[in-house]
Amino acid sequence: MPIYEFRCNQCNAKFEQLCRRDWQSGVSCPACGGKDLAKVLSAFSSPGSGGGKNCSACSGGNCASCK
């Protein structure tokens, strides 16, 4: 089951919930108990995307852009 991020339209609280794709039926706001929710587009990260020892700006990992 995927983790979705939600925002409550009643109290504006943001929270994450592990739920099925048909989340509308069983998810409620943990702050106020509201059911009027909006699914928020979440950011994600992937290994090797920006910075670190193997950045794309150089090959050795010792340049200023890799720090």
List the helices and strands and how they pair.
Elements: E1 3-8, E2 14-18, E3 37-40
Antiparallel strand pairs: 1-2, 1-3
N→C terminal distance: 36 Å
Residue windows where pLDDT falls under 50 for at least 5 positions: none
Strand elements, count: 3
Name the assembly state: single chain
Report the sheet-strand fraction: 15-25%
Q: From the alpha-carbon coordinates, what is the Rg to the nearest angstrom?
A: 19 Å
Order of SSEs: EEE
Spatial order of strands in the largest sheet: 2-1-3
- The total of helices stands at 0
Principal-axes geometry comes out as globular
- Class based on secondary structure composition and strand pairing: mainly beta
What profile does the largest beta sheet have?
Answer: 3 strands, antiparallel
Mean pLDDT: 75
Helix content: under 10%
What does this molecule look like?
Helix content is 0%, strand content 22%. A hairpin with a 5-residue loop joins β1 and β2. It has a domain of 42 residues. The mean pLDDT is 75. It contains no helices and three strands. The protein has a three-stranded antiparallel β-sheet with strand order 2-1-3, with no helix packed on it. The protein has 67 residues and is mostly beta strands. It is globular, with a radius of gyration of 19 Å.
